[in-house]
Design goal:
Layout (H helix, E strand, L loop, with lengths): L7 H17 L9 H7 L1 H11 L4 H10 L4 H12 L17 E6 L35 H8 L5 H5 L12 H9 L8 H6 L27 H10 L2 H12 L7 E15 L8 E17 L8 E10 L3 H13 L16 H5 L4 H9 L6 H35 L9
Antiparallel strand pairs: 1-2, 2-3, 3-4
Length: about 400
């Protein structure tokens, strides 16, 4: 049992008070509002919602504010709140092919039906600090140039890749296409039409919920995708990177990455039909991977899949890479790398669980440490005594050796 600590309750209360002061900072600086966080830190909010497994921008912003910007702590707060919510019904699968796209790119085809749309992205920035952001109320340089007419209407044209459908003069036609229900087709569908893409079939089995049922191994893909969607972005990114460096035979192409809003439909038990609940922003990624085939299957392409709440491009790319790596057994591929070992990946990708286990080392371990300290002292004492006994034995044996006779000339 742990040794009692005097004054612990008072010390903890003072620590909480100091944390509030640390979070608030200088009182002469206006505090951040939840609206400011949600609107001006959308990528942080998206990560907290995704790994916190709860789509609510206001609550995610509150968690970020309460955690003083520690996203992992914010994710923990959001998950803890999620456990208090009632579950009324299960939504229908999202139809991301009907997404209202704000960004859509492909590294496999230049000319796509519907075109490629860059949307908001850091990909083509120079990674130089924009010091205009230091000035209160000033707008970023790119936005200033756009509003001043330097780029003018060309901005819309430059926001499309070569071969894309123009967005300037044809914006009305694009909107009409969306209203008419003609949505952007999937890029991987082009390969499927030629029979070059491994066909994905619905198993028609109930989808397990890893928040209610523990993971079992070997796991199925439904469980793996849920775990990866809640997994740490950095962990998945590192594993995905490892597959590119030779730790797992994986040579992918970004088949399609799309970001936008898709509608969520619910089918309550008391109703015989589905009703729309609203739109949510999601990021989807489909990676194209080569499969050399086997004696039973021809050479074809396979896919890795990633989906996350909000604008979460890097996360879904890492997720798609790891998803494909974890399908090695499905394709009778040799499992040689950490990214292909499902128990290693799924049991270590959860940052809340990992942080909790590592952080518990900060809790009192006085008895455990005293036991180890006593053990170390006994071992050192035993070793010293053994060394002394050995030295005495050597001296005794040296005293028993008869003197050698002197040789006469």
């Amino acid at each position: 049992m742990y040794v009692a600590v005097k004054g612990g309750e008072t010390a903890i209360e003072n620590a909480h008070r100091l944390l509030d002061q640390k979070r608030r900072g200088a009182t002469d600086v206006p505090p951040l509002s939840l609206t400011q966080i949600a609107q001006q830190m959308p990528l942080a909010v998206a990560r907290v919602m995704s790994e916190g497994s709860l789509y609510d921008r206001e609550l995610a912003a509150l968690a970020i504010k309460q955690s003083a910007g520690d996203l992992l702590e914010a994710i923990f707060l959001l998950r803890a709140y999620r456990t208090t919510l009632s579950r009324y019904c299960v939504s229908r699968p999202l139809h991301t092919e009907s997404m209202q796209v704000e960004r859509r790119i492909s590294a496999t085809y230049k000319d796509l039906p519907g075109g490629q749309l860059l949307g908001p992205t850091f990909d083509y920035t120079h990674r130089l600090l924009d010091f205009t952001l230091q000035a209160e109320g000033e707008q970023p340089q790119a936005l200033q140039r756009s509003q001043a007419g330097v780029d003018g209407a060309a901005d819309a044209q430059q926001a499309t890749l070569p071969g894309a459908m123009p967005l300037g003069a044809d914006a009305q036609a694009d909107a009409a296409m969306q209203e008419a229900g003609q949505h952007f087709p999937r890029v991987l569908g082009l390969l499927a039409q030629e029979g070059l893409m491994r066909e994905e079939t619905d198993s028609a089995q109930p989808v397990p919920d890893i928040t209610r049922e523990p993971l079992d191994f070997p796991s199925n893909r439904m469980q793996r995708l849920q775990a990866l969607a809640r997994g740490d972005e950095g962990f998945l990114l590192a594993l995905g990177y490892s597959t590119q460096r030779g730790y797992g035979r994986n040579h992918p192409f970004a088949g399609e990455i799309r970001i936008g809003f898709t509608e969520v439909w619910l089918e309550p038990e008391e109703l015989d039909f589905a009703v729309p609940a609203g739109d949510i922003e999601v990021t989807e990624c489909e990676m194209v991977n080569q499969f050399v085939g086997s004696k039973d299957q021809p050479a074809q392409f396979t896919r890795g899949y990633g989906l996350a709440f909000g604008y979460n491009e890097r996360k879904v790319m890492g997720m798609a890479l790891v998803d494909r790596a974890l399908r090695a057994a499905e394709y009778d591929e040799e499992i040689t790398s950490p990214a292909q070992q499902e128990e290693f990946v799924l049991m270590h990708c959860d940052n809340v669980e990992a942080a909790g286990f590592v952080s518990h080392l900060k809790l009192p371990h006085y008895v455990d440490f005293q036991a180890e300290l006593e053990l170390i002292r006994k071992m050192r004492k035993r070793d010293a005594q053994a060394e002394l006994d050995q030295q005495q034995q050597q001296e005794t044996e040296a005293g028993r050796v008869p003197p050698q006779k002197e040789k006469r000339a």
